Amino acid sequence: DIQMTQSPSTLPASVGDRVTITCRASRSISRWLAWYQQKPGRAPKLLIYDASSLESGVPSRFSGSGSGTEFTLTISSLQAEDFATYYCQQYESYSGLTFGQGTRLEIK
Amino acid sequence: EVQLVESGGGFVQPGGSLRLSCAASGFTFSDYGMSWVRQAPGKGLEWVSAISGSGDNTYYADSVKGRFTISRDNSKNTLHLQMNSLRAEDTAVYYCAQQWVVLKYQLDYWGQGTLVTVSS
What we know:
The complex is a heterodimer of chains A (108) and B (120). By secondary structure, chain A is mainly β. Chain A has strands at residues 4-7, 10-13, 19-25, 33-38, 45-49, 53-54, 62-67, 70-75, 85-90, 98-99, 103-107. In chain A, the strands form 2 sheets. In chain A, strands 2, 4, 5, 6, 9, 10 and 11 form a 7-stranded mixed sheet that branches. In chain A, a hairpin with a 3-residue loop joins strand 5 (45-49) and strand 6 (53-54). Chain A is globular. In chain B, strand 4 and strand 5 (45-51) form a beta hairpin. In chain B, the strands form 2 sheets. In chain B, strands 2, 4, 5, 6, 9, 10 and 11 form a 7-stranded mixed sheet that branches. A 4-stranded antiparallel sheet of chain B has the order 1-3-8-7, with no helix packed on it. Chain B is mainly β. Chain B contains no helices and 11 strands. The A-B interface holds A 32, 34, 36, 38, 42-46, 49-50, 87, 89, 91-94, 96-102 and B 35, 37, 44-47, 50, 59-61, 95, 99, 103-113.
């Protein structure tokens, strides 16, 4: 099975900050990676797919990069509504989907 | 507009059974793979099971293999998850999610989730 490891687990930040979340795969997954945002009590929402493609309707301050085993999600200028938990997820393997453990973006 | 609405969650004792459903609308249901993903209270996301658009191919996480069965009724645009031999660690919010190609695509749309509580 492919393991996904996110860092950091918690990220204190302020409105206007540029923040980066990292996701590492236990083996190469090419670019088969998605990022989701989840707010308390809500379902996850797709932000990025294929490592760097922005989902329709998602603000352009969100961007993704990487390939192989290392990936990043960057928010260029944090807005108040961006404080949430973020998950990466691989879809390279027919063994099943796996998620990172999540990164909670909190107000500093 | 794509809509996924889960139902069937509730309270059940360990060893019991529950059947979850996910009603889909706004897209051609049989064209899409579907997955169930769960989230234990205060924890992260865990993929549970997936099924191809035709229903011919099914996939399970090791944690539920042999206890859970995924199925779909394309004539009724409905996805199901039959959960047997439930354990306390199965307590979670269960989400259904749409996937263009089963297991090889991102999860584009998610339902609002249904809570399953396994406790004596």
